[in-house]
Design goal:
Blueprint (H helix, E strand, L loop, with lengths): L7 H13 L2 H8 L3 H15 L4 E4 L2 E4 L1 H25 L5 E8 H6 L1 H11 L3 E8 L1 H9 L5 E5 L8 E8 L1 E5 L12 E6 L4 H12 L4 E7 L2 H9 L5 E3 L8 E3 L12 E8 L6 H17 L15
């Protein structure tokens, strides 16, 4: 059997195009012409000896083999970059303070800490899990170096948009009845103030649907327990959902459509020190990998122009 060695530059182009939702954008990001990117994608399919893409309307979508390739490509690039960073920054030392929404605590944080610690064992990390407003306040006061949070309207001087993620109605894994028409919808939410709690109640108010707060909690674990027990519905995203709850299909149960939530990376200073900058890079990579399909630019993948 012929041994295949995939080209990491080709894999990086492939992953970048998928994350940006456009290989034309990937060509600009990577500093290559669109014809060079097209040649790389052709080379990838030749090396894989199977189609990676299929036509989907005016654009492209991944085949089953392409989806498998994307997962392996991310892992190979991650390992390559980790090795390069470990060699280049072998003496990197210091202290960095990281803030995350609870949604990302289980889905993203373990992988981020593992990757960073393997490459930079001399760096000490302090992590704080909190809500959007709290993380924003800590960035502004200088008590956090970087923070990943839903954008709640707070203006921060050094903040960049990461993705727009669809908010979803979340119910128990076992389908539940929401009651007869006109009966108040039971809600489960964080204690106020909470961005997603406000989104839920304002969305229902605009739709003219009555609601009642059936359960509130200061922790995401409490939210999941109440939803799993059937006390009511909550809204979150598809990120980090436990097995005992499920996202409800759009339009099901007569529920109104929810907006997309803007995810931002906040930083204390315009220019991060090398320690915080490296952690921010790993955090962004891991977050993009955890996002549901289409979260960055919407559904579909455009071909190279």
């Amino acid at each position: 059997m012929r041994r295949v060695t995939f080209d990491l530059d080709v894999l990086r182009t492939f992953v970048t195009g998928m994350e940006l939702g456009s290989f034309a954008k990937a060509s600009g990001r990577l500093g290559r012409s669109t014809s060079a990117v097209s040649a790389q994608l052709k080379k990838l399919e030749e090396q894989a000896a199977t189609p990676i893409f299929r036509k989907a309307g005016r654009g492209l979508a991944l085949t089953e083999a392409g989806e498998t390739m994307l997962g392996y490509a991310r892992r190979l690039i991650e390992l390559n970059d980790e090795a390069a960073s470990a060699i280049r920054d072998v003496e990197l030392e210091g202290w960095v303070r990281l803030g995350l929404q609870e949604d990302f605590g289980e889905a993203v944080l373990p992988g981020v800490l593992g990757r960073f610690a393997r490459a930079h064992p001399k760096v000490r990390i302090e992590a704080r899990i909190g809500r959007s407003h709290e993380l924003a306040e800590r960035i502004l006061s200088g008590n956090l170096d970087i923070a990943l949070a839903w954008h709640d309207g707070t203006t921060l001087p050094y903040s960049r948009h990461v993705a727009d993620v669809q908010a979803r109605w979340i119910g128990p894994a076992k389908p539940m009845e929401v009651g007869p028409h006109g009966q108040a919808l039971p809600l489960v939410a964080f204690e106020a103030p909470c961005l997603l709690r406000t989104v839920a109640t304002e969305t229902l108010d605009r739709a003219g649907l009555p609601w009642r707060m059936a359960f509130s909690s200061p922790s995401l674990g409490g939210i999941w327990a109440a939803v799993a027990a059937g006390l009511g519905l909550t809204i979150r995203t598809d990120i980090g959902l436990p097995a005992n709850v499920r996202a409800i299909a759009p339009g099901a149960l007569g529920l109104p459509a929810l907006p997309r939530m803007a995810l931002h990376l906040h930083q204390k200073d315009a220019e991060l020190d090398p320690v915080a900058a490296r952690l921010a890079d790993i955090l962004l990579q891991s977050t993009v990998e955890a996002l549901p399909e289409g979260a960055r630019t919407g559904e579909g993948l455009r071909e190279v122009a």
